[in-house]
Task: structure prediction
Amino acid sequence: MVRFENVGLRYGMGPEVLRDVTFGIPARSFQFLTGPSGAGKTTLLRLLFLSLRPTRGLISIFGRDAAKLDPNETAALRQRIGIVFQDFRLLDHLSTYENVALPLRVQGREEASYRAEVSELLQWVGLGERMHVLPPVLSGGEKQRAAIARALISRPEILLADEPTGNVDPSLARRLLRLFLELHKSGTSILIATHDIALMDQFDARRLVINQGRLTVYD
Ligand SMILES: Nc1ncnc2c1ncn2[C@@H]1O[C@H](COP(=O)(O)OP(=O)(O)OP(=O)(O)O)[C@@H](O)[C@H]1O
Result:
């Protein structure tokens, strides 16, 4: 589904923060991405979400060369990818419900066809009571759960999540991991960037470890 060949990335004139990164994300796979702070995890996710272009090397996503996409093609491919940003990026003028429903609205679906689905997912992540409030009044952990629900709702082919359990307690983290596992069972490839060793130890998955910009895969 995704292939990186000798990918390098530098920001502006700075040093290379990713170096010779070669790996793939197979269909229906589950992997953790880990490594010390500043190692390049978020940068790698931004490349995968097509919001950064590599300085060198080749990235192929869904069989398309990422360097050759026009803005419309990039937008179309992004609809097939769910992402949970570290800083959530909820839209403050939309309710929690509307934020979560947004990917389905963008796909052109009628509200009547997804209302129950969105409510059910919000209940599952413990936001049933917070459905109609605006994000600025949510706590950090509530925002994180809303961001996860928004990334999952359209059952994307790939789900990318940057520290998705960073703001919740261990029992809620386990519950959220179950949600990712359910999505994985239904066919989505999952990549979770995390420092949370306890979370990784709960599930025997591939580990992609970045250190000083270099990536090693442990199958
Ligand atoms: N927009 C930017 N401009 C310049 N340098 C950047 C930019 N974003 C990140 N960097 C640098 O790139 C390197 C990798 O950063 P990145 O955020 O990818 O690491 P990370 O592994 O996600 O870290 P953390 O675990 O702390 O979130 C760091 O040295 C960081 O300072």
In short: The mean pLDDT is 94.
